[in-house]
Amino acid sequence: MAERLPPELWSHIFDLAADEDVIFYPGLQSAMAQSTWYKLLWGGWIVRTPRDTINMIQRRSYATKKSIITACKTWRRLGTEFLVRCLFFDDPTKLRDLCSILDRDPSLGWWARRLHITHFLSGRGPTMDDFENPLISILQQCPNLQIFIVDWPMSSAFGPIADTLGTYCHNLRTVHWHVPSELLSKVIWALDTLPNLVAVHVEFDAAVQESDTITLGSAQDVKLKLPNLQQLFLKGFFQDFLEQATEWSLPMLRSFSFDFGTNRHDLPDVVSFLAQHGTTLLFLDLNCIPALDVRTILDLCPFLTTFCFNLDWKIAPIPNPDLNDEDVAMLPITLANRPHDHIQHIGLHGLLHAFGVGCAAAAQTIATSKHCTKSRFQKLERVRVLSPRVLQDLNDMNGPADSCYERWAGWWEMCAKMSVRLEDCSAGELGNLPQDPEEEGHESGEDEEIEYYTDEEERSGSVSLAELRELLEECKRMTEEGEREQSPFQLFLTPPM
Question: b/e map of 320-330 (b: 16 or more CB within 10 Å)?
């Protein structure tokens, strides 16, 4: 069968089977990315976060490609390039093996488009600094690299790695870096050498030294021009970065997100940043504990279609100089000074205490969704609760606590009257929890997990699991019939740890 189809058709089939459209999408995951449900074989539904999902997709893609190249001679010849297009590591020690392979056959690096190193050891084991040399050697042989993601914290290794990216990887479109705050100047210089970036995610760890003693040197006066940057995501201690970015030229910026974690002091000056760049934004995600001036922020971003904020913020009524404090306190609370013409989707952070479940069950809260009304957001279509933890706690407790049921029902009633869909982070309707599948016809032992997808995901047009299994069965049949040859990637033909 392999000889009867043209190589172009096989390439398209391999693309579909290996989820290439998902893996090579240049944008980074936002807060509105969907979580999914899965059920372990021994029982219990677990929420899989978008980050875990993309890592799982890359592992599954790797297994599919491995089956493809070991099936027969023709598929090995056509499929080898697919094996190196996405390089995914959850064990950085494998970088040395890949470095050896590319040293033997440098032409293989030409096919690499995505390099993703994920962090899962929780502080144990080696650091990225221990693998600086092999990673630099790999990057030097990947001139067409488009996506570079390193979830693993980098410190002293970041400078040389960033220099290598700027020198050799001119097609780079997406980066995800995790660095200490002291390396802010190197981050700025790295961005200066990569003007074609479309999406940037930078996570800053807390500074080891006093922040007042950190100097930017000549990077202080750099006015970056990133003409193609459309998505910027900042996390951690990024206050100084945001101050510098306020003066940069970002004409194509469409999406801005920040996650300030549990920090409560030295809040980033997001208002000044949005005063310069807010008019181009379509997506805005502000995740922090201290309340921000939402009404001013929305005035600065008139074309937003998606807005995410913390519903636990204490938002004051609109000031009225003609009323005393007691009368002002009785005024209705609104998110916008005037109706917003474009917002269709609202995402809600926080709400850990809203339904009386999980470890927050004993806490009291007055979180309310009454701020999100059609009078201020005329095009509003959906409101989504963004926390996977809230959804997991709701499932574990089989719904909201009795004391919070009235709030949950009130949200449902209000959204229904406005014809607005109220969702959880899986894009399912809030409160519709997964149900156990019927026992009949289920063969235990084959799969460790049962996936559960929402209606929206089923309509997305992605390759179905049945189609993937059908292709893999064909791979297995051809493996039995064909002649297996030694692959230059034999070191990688074992399942990733």
Answer: eeeeeeeeeee
